[in-house]
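Side project, low priority. Logging it here so it doesn't get lost.
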Amino acid sequence: MITITRRLALQLRVVFRRALGLTRVFGPALWFATGRDGIHVRARSGGAAVEYHDPSEKLPTEDMWLPFDFLDDVEARRDDPVELEARPDGHIMAGWRDGNVPQCVRYDPVKPSDTDRFPEMPKKFTQNPPRLLVALRDAMETTDPDAVRFATNTIQLRGTSGTIAATDGRQVLIQHGFTFPWDDDVLMPRTRVFGSRELFCDGPVALARTGVWVVIRNGPWTVHRTIDTDGRFPEVDHHVPRAGDAAARLWIAPTNAESLAKSLPRLPGYDEFNGPVTVDLNGTVAIRARAEMQKEPTELTLCDSTCSGEPIRINTSRKYLARAVKLGFEEIHLYTPKVPVMCRDEHRRYVWALLGPDSAIPPSEGAIRITSAELQDEKPANVSISNHKPRRRRPKAMSQRKPDQDGRTEAASRTRPAAGDKTGTLDLEALIEHAEVLRGSLREALSKTSELVAALKRHRRQSKLVQSTLASLKRLQAADA
């Protein structure tokens, strides 16, 4: 008998699905094994394999194969035990408790014919700092899943320099300071597994290479990825400018980073192609955006951030600016309105291409002005960008609004009430009230959806139980005959 917890089943399902690139519940067979070195759980699909190994307890020697949907059947955020028992007829009986209700499901044997397909475990690993997992996660998020000419759906692991390089053709992330046990450059295909928090454990991250596999181990988890030997990685270093050639530098204060990350998706024009914003450095740090039907732009001033060098104005996609902030960069180097900008710190360099400078938004006397200090207030009632929420599609009502005599849309006019006029505040309070009602409705919908999913899972388990019982009765009837 093999025993695991329902919480472990949940962790296995999350990590295995991401490591193997599964998009549905169905997946490859799972191998459970116990022995003097603890418990092993393995699975492989295509060019990916993953193993969970907990050596903390010596157990009787036993192994069994289960279908992947077993994890979906038993997973929960509780440590209730799940007992797996192999029957003489080859079937596996799984028993656990769902609350106070005992559950028992029979699984058909699913042992694959090629059980030796799991890659060989390396005998020697090279230790790396814990930040390697974070670096792999950030690199994978920089790749392009739809690579065409170059292998931008992979990351490059440079053995001689200990560098990780990634790009999607518009942005480049290069990270240094690692030790790889090979001398050449290795291409590892894109995977989402390094974004799994279950994978992050205390201690160093071990790295190895066996044949066509790159192996990463952290705590009880070991991930195997095949090496892309046919892909051609672009020469990204040619697109990284030198820091000393920068015409201007921008330092984003930590006090502004959080407010900037929150405000960028709310600034006007979020739904437009590339979501452009203008970054203007001219003594102060100003970020401007304008919606399609908005005459005057919205301007956000970062009060605590500073700039140096020549005045410069660039037009950029807010997605990459937001990502630079999310990655924790504080220093941005700017060159010309047409040359990519670069962020750097001790171990990383992040570069992204700019949009056409002709579309940059110049200063305007009638701009709707906001400061980062206002965004940090406890009650940002008069901050106009709080009216904007990120949407993939612009609502029809917005396209039907007509500009007023000053050329501003009706929504934009309300965000700037005249002195002594409380209309804007009242409208904003009404919007907040509607937002709170919507939030309550969404919470109720989420609760009902969770109940429906739980009911469907119970129904599936009960169906399997009924099928198992009917099969047992048929065998008993055959035996009596």
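Brief comment: The chain has nine helices and 26 strands.
Revisit when time allows.
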